[in-house]
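Entry 14. Structure prediction run on the chain below.
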Amino acid sequence: TEARVLFLKEIDTAPNAAAKANAQRSMAMSWAFDSNCAKTVEYEQQVMAYWVTREKEEPANAFYQQGEMANEAARVCIDSGDLDTAQKWYRKGTELGLKEPGISADRKALWAFRLAHAEARLAARRGNRAEAEKQVAAAKAALDSMTELRKQQEPFLPYLTGYVALYLGDTKTAIADLEKANQNDAFIQCLLGMAWEKQGDAAKAKEYYRKAAQVNGHNPPAAFAKPFTRRKL
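Output returned:
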């Protein structure tokens, strides 16, 4: 709450449109720490509006950034439990990202991977095993089609399969897969804590929650981890 007063001042006194958009993005993420999907979307849309003004000057980056901001809002919404809004913005993000002029095959595959990744997680949260498995397969296919971006994106696959397994009740697979994901990601640490807690190992769960509680970022993983681990610990 105190930070938002400062972010608002930064927005109001920004020396140019780019600086204002950066401050609006910071404001969007501050609402994420309160699991406020609607306010996060509101400010992310303002950032997207800035990138619309950059379409002529830097079309490739402008459309990519619009897609990124839509996905960032969607990520906050799924973590906040607003699955329908998350799905809307994940799809919108893909639509915007694919408008990039002269988009490369790798970049197309990246957007396909991200959307399938999101749709699988949403399906798992809704308890729809068949759809989740279908989307996991689509994500794997998109990843396999990448060349230059494949190595960079590979760590997100065990994050996906672990997440899906966790929400579909297979905690053993969830732990095995999540341990192959980025171990420095506070969100992954929270998922591992959740999986161990469901396995009945409270000590192991707390070990991961304590790790996640140390995060200091201003981003979706931190926005989820800080309040979540505060409740757990």
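Residues 59-80 form the longest helix (22 residues).
Filed with the rest of this week's runs.
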